[in-house]
Design brief:
- With 124 residues, the chain is α+β, with helices and mostly antiparallel strands.
- Helix content is 21%, strand content 31%.
- It contains two helices and six strands, in the order ββαββαββ.
- The N and C termini lie far apart (37 Å).
Length: 124
């Protein structure tokens, strides 16, 4: 963060050491207009705690994030997001992103796209 920027604590959810559940890490990031985007970028960077595991497949990029007035947040990820190992990992990734974004009162629901295409499931 740049000097003089106000910091805000955000909650990020990663896969815990057991590989089966989510754990929360707090991180300070600069307060900006696009808090949801910046928070998701931090989630993509991965956990700070050594025992926690990344929840988003390596190489995945946030292509876009769009928050509608009704509270629907559309998250568009690059195709690497499809590289979740299995349905369980996919469920953890979706849950981590959704839980991370819903800490913001303006986010009511989260839906996903891969490379600009709506997906019923992340594993295609």
């Amino acid at each position: 963060p740049e000097a003089g920027q106000e910091l805000i604590e955000v909650k990020l959810y990663f896969v815990g050491p057991d590989g089966k559940s989510l754990v929360m890490e707090e991180r300070s990031i600069a307060r900006t207009e696009s808090m949801a985007r910046n928070t998701l970028q931090e989630l993509i960077k991965g956990p700070a705690e050594n025992e926690n595991l990344p929840v988003i497949p390596e190489g995945t990029r946030l292509r876009d994030i769009n928050l509608k007035p009704d509270g629907l947040c559309i998250v568009d990820l690059s195709s690497q997001a499809r590289q979740a190992a299995n349905a369980e990992q996919e469920k953890l990734m979706v849950s981590a992103i959704t839980t991370t974004l819903k800490q913001f009162p303006t986010v009511k629901n989260v839906t996903f796209m891969i490379d600009g295409q709506t997906v019923p499931s992340m594993l295609q």
